[in-house]
Amino acid sequence: MTQTQQLRTLLLLIVCLSMMFHSEAVFSQKNINELRFSSATIIVKDLKTSASWYRKFLQFSVEEYRPDKYVKMKNDDFRLILKQGNSTLLKSQINFKEGKKYINGITKLGFATNQFDSLYMYLQKYEQIIVKDIHDDINLGLKSYVTLDPDGNLLQFFDIPNQSRLYQVDPMYFTIQSSDYINTLKWYTTHMGFEEIEIVDDSNIHFQNLLRKDGIILELVHLPHQSVETTEFMPLNRDLAQIEELSFKIGLAKTKAFELDNNGNKVVFMK
C-alpha cells in the first residue's frame, strides 16, 4: 500500500469514528405496544473493565456506580446492569466433565446499528476479538458479525442503515442454548407470542430455530445431551461470568407476567 493509500485509509477511519463517537447515541422511535428490550443484567469478573468497555464501544452512559457491587448503564430506554461477581469464573476457565462441552442458558445479545462498518473498524483498531467475521445471515437477510465483551459474552451486531448521522445501537436479538428445545420453543411461543421464522440456511453445526416477536429475534440453539447446567460444574461460593437476566416490556408495563422461562433462565416480562 502506498503512502497516499495509507493516508486515505487513515482519514476514512477518522471520519467514521467521528460520526460514531462525537454524537449522542439515540434509538429510533418504537411503537409502545410492541415487545421491546427493557434491560439486561450481566455478571462480570471486573466491574471497572466491563463498564469501560460498554461505554467505549457501545456508548452506554453510567447512571449509577457502586464500587465492587454494580454499575447501572443506559442507552436511551435500554438499561444494562453489570454486577460484580464473587471470585468470578469465566466460561473459558470451565473444566467440563468428560463428554460434556456445552452450557444451557442465555449466551448472546444482538444489536442493530446504523454504523455497522465504523464499529467494526473501531473494534479492529483496538484489537478486539472478532469471533465471526462480517457475513450475510441468509435467514434474516442481514449482514452481521460477532465479537466478545471482556467476560467472553457473545455480542452480535446487525447492519440496519438509516439516514441518521447519529450513532444508534438498538438491542434486537438474544440467543438461548437448550437441550430441552421442544419445550423451550413451546414456552416462548405460548408465553411471549414469538413466531417461527422460516430457516433457509440450516448449515449450523447444531440445529437452530429463529423466532420473532415484533422487532425482537430469538435464536434458539438445540444442544445435544452432552450439555450441562451451571449447577453441575460451578464451585461453591463462585459466580459464573454470564448474561444473567433479560427484561422485556410491552406498553406501560405495570404488571409482571413471569420471571423464569422453562429452563430457569431469568426472563422478566412486563406488560
Automatic annotation (TrEMBL):
Positions of the VOC domain: 36-160
Domain of life: Bacteria
PROSITE patterns per UniProt: VOC
Protein name: VOC family protein
Source species: Reichenbachiella agarivorans
